[in-house]
Amino acid sequence: MKTDELRESYLSFFEEKGCVRRPSDVLVPRDDPTVLFTPAGMNQFKDQFLGVGKLEFTKATTCQMCLRTGDIQNVGVTAYHHTFFEMLGNFSFGDYFKREAIHWAWEYLTSKKYLGLDPNLLSVTVYLDDDEAYNIWHDEIKLPANRISRENEHENFWPAGAPSDGPDGVCGPCSEIFYHPNGGKDNVEIWNLVFTQFNRVGDPPNNLKPLPKKNIDTGMGLERTASVLQGVRSNFEIDTLKQLCLAAGDVVGTGYGFDKPTGRPLRRISDHVRAITFSIHEGVNPGRDKESYVVRQLLRRALLEGYLLGKQEPFLYQLVPAVVDIMQTPYPEIAKTVEHVQHTIKEEEEQFLGVIEKGLTRFEGFLKKAEQEGKSEIAGEDAFDLHQTDGFLIELTEALAAKNNISVNRTEFNNLMQQHKEGSGSGAFLDSVMSEGPLTALHKTTSDTQFKGYETTVDEGTVVGIIAEDRLVESVVEKGHAHPVVVVLDQTPFYAEAGGQVGDTGYLEGEGLKFEVVNTQRNGGLILHIGHLLEGKLEQGQTLKATVIEPRRSGIQRAHSATHLLHHALHTVIGDSAMQRGSKVEQDTLRFDFSHSKALTPEEISQVEDIINQRISEGASVTTQLMKLQDARNLGAMALFGEKYPDNVRVVQMGDFSIELCGGTHLTNTGQVGLCKIVNEEPVAKGVRRIHALTGPKALEKTRNSEKLLQEIAGQLKAPRLDELPQKIAHLQDEIREMKKQLLKFSSKSLAGTADELLDEAPVVNDVKIVAYHAKDVSRDQLRELADHLRKKGKQVALILGTEIDGKVALMAAVNQELVKQGLKAGDCVKAAAKVVGGGGGGRPDMAEAGGKDPEQLDAALKTGADYYRSQLEG
Questions:
Q1: CATH level 3 topology of 3-232
Q2: Scanning 216, 337, 483, 616, which has the fewest C-beta atoms within 10 Å of its C-beta?
């Protein structure tokens, strides 16, 4: 059975059992602060497991994209470890329980209609005290006792060890199913059935309290089960991943074979490139923080594998089409971002190859240091410095060290890495999965807030929840609240911040009561009115008049409708690859992020602006309708990749040129935007650009201010007409250039004199003059000129110069060519000095530059540079 066939077979089977087939959740859940990436199938069903909100179905089945990095060292080494993988699952929220879960799992695995596995090659485990599960397996499934193993809480409980070690909260025993191919010699775990039936409260004993509603959460690894069905010895040999491994071998130029020495690194490359392709597709580019950092590390590890195989140029980006080829049947949308994903990967590859090139010099220094000290290993501190400061991955340091017949003190390195993680609080995933709080409690006692703001900005609603000082309260009186109060109504015209559109502001009013709403947010299905009680007493059950500030809402709607026009204009000017990557919509102000590899030209910006305002002048109708998600996609509605959409979506259409999925508030025709003015275009991340624009009154104000500014400049330059400004400015620039030439002549003479003074006063070590000088009020060019004067005037000179420019440090080191031949390197000097001022840099052995952030340490940095020269010359 092919992998795509297995996925469909599983989902169809559980649909036949009454489970609702749900699409995979996004890989990067933006609305879940507890995880960076979706780690399991149950993640999208947290509210259902907790009984939060309206329960639209009681059992479900999914195939979920997942990403975990906890076992990254085992990827490509073992048969079954991955970072990105797919998890098949079936779930129950107070519906079926152990008997059905076990019987259905056995039926699906052994029935000839489905997987048809030999029952004699299957065994199971159950939790030590779970007699219920044991009896179902033994008495009903008729599995022999010798194929049922009872395991402790660390092996067969979720979370592992929960009864003794916690955490408190929902938990339960589990039952794992194993397949034993080759007559039982091998052992493959293919399915885990979790029976969440307890609420852990406090320490043992008697700390597991039965839940009123028992749940089922199962997980079957798609790739692992496919390997069993296809009779191969590794997940990487199944029909999909084998194809990717072969492509990786072709691109790297080594060819792929499972047992070849290159097999392991090519498997790692294949795994990681699949993970980063899906992550970047969802808008997570390589970077320094959170999920972006994980993507960067996966990309660099994959590139490093190829680098060590001799592929010392960008190559990962070439594998993106191969990833799309094997994954587009279940996830067809990834085919739409190939160009953007490739560009982003290639740019990061080029950057990291530059990091490697720069880091090689420092590595050679540490290698030389180890040799001089007579050691057979590079210090863990040095390897950590390379890894953390220079981005020189430890795997590369170890590989290069091995080529020079020495090792790396990995124990010391690991200790330093652990200290760094603890100090920075970093980690791939956060610990908390489910948490109780006032909002969770409110979800259990009230229905979702009904939003009436599409039709009106004034309505009445009943108070169903009040949160003050982080707890649910019955009432609030005016005074004494250090933090804002949260009010939840049964219905409201207030729009809660979502989709880039900011939340509404306004007032809630009743008899003798006034509450100012300063922000509106959403938590699940609840709309939260956040603000301050100005007068009166706020109580549960009150009916209040809810009034949105209309002028602000109108300005937000102008800006929001303009983002759709901007998206349309970008597609027209630069193509469909300009996909939306985010937005922020405020009152007559918008910013719009889109995928594009380079800055827009002034001509392109003008074209985009012209198209937007042309659509505004047409006064095209803006219509909205609610429909099924798949119907909207069939209609051609644009959606944000990586965004989580409900089953029923709101579709906003403008004329016959724009149709998008959008839950925000909009105008009724494009002419109401009035005017749109682009004010800025800039980069925000690799392959992502940002446009800032104004609409309505703010756009008009911006235009008038620009005209006023031009008139003032024309007056100062004595230009009677605005069209004479370019000529006047060109004349001034000519005058400035001439004055700079004259000034340069005087400064060159001054620098030559300074060089003479410095050489006369310089200390001498082994016939070499060492110059360390803090120059004041000079440019980088003048610093270079001074360095040239010193080298020309001094027969044997080693210099380190520094100055402060715009609050930052500029350093320059240089030595004569004769000293380079003797092993003295300006680059090593300037790196040592740069560390003192919190910076870095490098360059040629005879001349090198660096920068830094701490001008107060400049003199100390110059002394460090001079000391470096002295130690090298005396040594």
A1: BirA Bifunctional Protein; domain 2 (3.30.930)
A2: 483
